[in-house]
Task: structure prediction
Amino acid sequence: MLDVERAKAAVHAIRLLMEENQDHLIEIDGIIGDGDLGLTMTKAFRAADEGISGSDEQDVGKLMAKAGMVMAKAAPSTMGSLVATGFMRGGKAVTGRDTDLGAGNIAEFFRAFSDGIMERGKTKPGNKTIVDVTDPVATALEKAARDGSDGSELAKAAVEAAKAGEEAAKGMISQHGKAAVYREQTLGKPDPGATAGSLIVQGFFSVFEG
Result:
């Protein structure tokens, strides 16, 4: 399902989505945050895309870990570091597997991706963060893999879980960062991190559609 060329295409697709949604991320981050998330995500994925596009690495895990390392240097802000950690942890989890990762490996990547962010950010589901997208996505992928889903079914499960998680985060109260200062005022508002996480999932799995 996921070889190095498709992995590169996935990172490129995320980059394009971040560029397309840069202003939207800036707008919603400006409500309860610093307003720089759109710039951070664009910078991070532009660097990752450029950093791995010409790589001759044939191990998908190592390639994704490299994307994370590039992001960490290019966008060392809080969210940049968290997403970079996700890619590095996810990549490490599937390093040394087949050159063409199957559904189970992809689920393993996203579980490590999400757990890495939780550990680095010292957070958990329910705190109105990117984890409120990545954790249910990992769970949905694990179930889809157990059910023997193909690429398009896997993509559908992941994207649906991401959008549901993004929507659910609106009903939560921020517990971290600048947004936590506003507490109850964040209730009913979109979480910028969850929105960015949903875009990552949508971009990643767009290469499995069709």
